[in-house]
């Protein structure tokens, strides 16, 4: 049974999510002034903060199985430094193929100085709203990893969500290790919206 504290934390998170979602859609011209409150109320009462995403590939092994996995992802309408943190595993739009999505770990955000192991490369500082994402499979070469080492810094708005849970198969699944702050913030969302049976049904492997 869900505790009262968890309910309160979940509702607080959902309220912030729906406000962020409303602001984003209003700013983008998708929601008019007189529609904003109805939009927020509708998504607060009926919408979910998470979605399922299927991914496959060696880039994030061993965190995510190379054979494929179904992920529970928390939506991030406004992916700024107050909502996503270094150390988080995120789903992002592929900057080279906008219709595709990648799963990578956030390694640095604006203000971080990036230095290469190659002395020929000059160090640089990530600019405002820029971030650096990396694959986790250390066996892959940089060109094979398809991350910021090949396509460079990306804008934070490329991030669409944070991965909370990974299902490799019906008996092998568990929470994804993110930054400590995100782990704490996501706990009530995970407790309220995680449905392993639904993930198993959606699993493609």
TrEMBL record:
InterPro entries attached to this UniProt entry: LexA/Signal_pep-like_sf (IPR036286), Mitochondrial_IM_protease (IPR053307), Peptidase_S26 (IPR019533)
One of the GO biological process terms: signal peptide processing
A molecular-function term among this protein's GO annotations: serine-type endopeptidase activity
Name assigned to this protein: Peptidase S24/S26A/S26B/S26C family protein
CDD domains: S26_SPase_I
Species of the source: Medicago truncatula (Barrel medic)
């Amino acid at each position: 049974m869900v505790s009262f504290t968890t309910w309160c934390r979940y509702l607080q998170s959902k309220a912030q999510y729906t406000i962020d979602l409303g602001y984003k859609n209003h700013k983008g011209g998708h929601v008019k002034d007189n529609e904003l409150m109805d939009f927020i109320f509708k998504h607060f009462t009926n919408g979910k903060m998470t979605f399922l995403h299927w991914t496959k590939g060696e880039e994030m092994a061993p965190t995510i199985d190379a054979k494929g996995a179904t992920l529970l992802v928390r939506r991030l309408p406004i992916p700024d430094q107050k909502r996503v943190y270094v150390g988080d595993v995120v789903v992002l739009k592929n900057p080279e193929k906008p219709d595709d999505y990648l799963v990578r770990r956030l390694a640095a955000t604006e203000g971080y100085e990036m230095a290469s192991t190659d002395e020929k490369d000059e160090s640089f500082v990530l600019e405002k709203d820029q971030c650096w994402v990396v694959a986790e499979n250390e066996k892959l070469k940089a060109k094979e990893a398809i991350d910021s080492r090949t396509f460079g810094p990306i804008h934070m708005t490329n991030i669409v969500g944070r991965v909370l849970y990974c299902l490799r198969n019906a008996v092998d699944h568990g929470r994804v290790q993110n930054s400590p702050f995100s782990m704490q913030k996501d706990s009530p969302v995970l407790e309220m919206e995680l449905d392993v049976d639904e993930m198993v049904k959606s699993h493609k492997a």
